[in-house]
Amino acid sequence: MPIPIRPAVASVPPYKPGKPAPVGPDGSSFKLSSNENPYPPLPGVIEAAQHAVQRMNRYPDMANAELTAALAAKHGVGDDEIALSTGSVAVLYNLLQTVITDGDEVLYAWRSFEAYPIAVQLTGARSVPVPLGPGATHDLEAMLAAITPASKVILVCTPNNPTGPIVPHDQLADFIDQVRDDIMIIIDEAYLEFATAPDRARFDDLRRPNVVTMRTFSKAYGLAGFRVGYCIADPAIAGAVRAAATPFGVSAPAQAAALASLAADADLLARVEELIKERTAVVTGLRDLGLAIPDSESNFVWIPAGERTAAWAAEFEAAGLAVRPFTDEPDAGIRITVGEPEANKLVLQVAGTLKP
Asked: HAMAP family under this entry (predicted)?
């Protein structure tokens, strides 16, 4: 007789990673499907990681003490308000583990980060997806209306993955103040470094006992392969995340690389500026072709392709571009990471041949 698998696990939809880069007819090959930073690690990062590798026979610092102190100093918070795990997705899982019980509800905008429904289902909670509003933005009024006595967590992704817009600061602050104090509000800011809008969220003005901010080293810092994410939260919540996290989860090379990355902020900002320039060029080029591209404050752009999603994604792939199609309705579309200038030029070239 087979071992019974818990229903919440047996029926969970698998996470779909971005496809590897195909090779186009002219040899072009660019992976624009996973929102990775196209640049190599920042100066000093490889050296720091290599030094840490020499001690791989020892366990890493389970408390992540040096990295925690550096992050606390960066954000002006106490060490006890920082909790790390293996990427912000793992932080999300740990956060939900700390508060969710059977019958609870978790609200989030949809479409948003595809890991949300998976993480919620694994806890035994019920997902409450709230459709996006005009311009692929969070409909905060609808989210407030969806709150019930069973609501336990609300997820807000800003900039939103995969559509790109931010939730303006004042709207987010007003939203937070209207939510019950016993509901955890998780603000997922994985792409915050790419946001340039004057009204983007300001962390210092949103701090509440029930508000958690998630950040990652995977995107702007270019450490996707090392899996380092963290949250800033009330000490009680941060302590619970540390308790739920896998012991020794963040490896010694990952900790060293993250520390070195924090020390290279000037180089980071220069790279981010280049990606923002490329993003602007891609958004402008796609709009000039007549495509209804929403504002993007992240390192990707969103093409709301609808029923043409699969066909258009195949056109990009045939040219050597791996993009990320989301074919399920509603809000089917294609997410394209901002990559190297050559890749971005090819994106616009292919987009100009797409048939409506």
From this structure: HisC_aminotrans_2
Pull the structure tokens for residue 268.
């980071």
Q: What is the CA radius of gyration of the chain?
A: 20
pLDDT of residue 102: 85
DSSP conformation class of 19 = P
241 and 275: one domain? Answer: no
* End residue of a domain, out of 262, 279, 308: 262
User: pLDDT tens across 212-246, in order?
Assistant: 999 999 999 999 999 999 999 999 999 999 999 99
Is-contact 84 245, C-beta < 8 A? yes
Q: Are residues 249 and 299 in the same domain?
A: no
Question: Can you give the pLDDT at residue 8?
Answer: 76
Pairing of strands 211-216, 184-188: parallel
- From 212, 229, 262, give the residue that closes a domain: 262
Whether the model pTM is above 0.90: yes
| Domain co-membership, 215 together with 289 | no
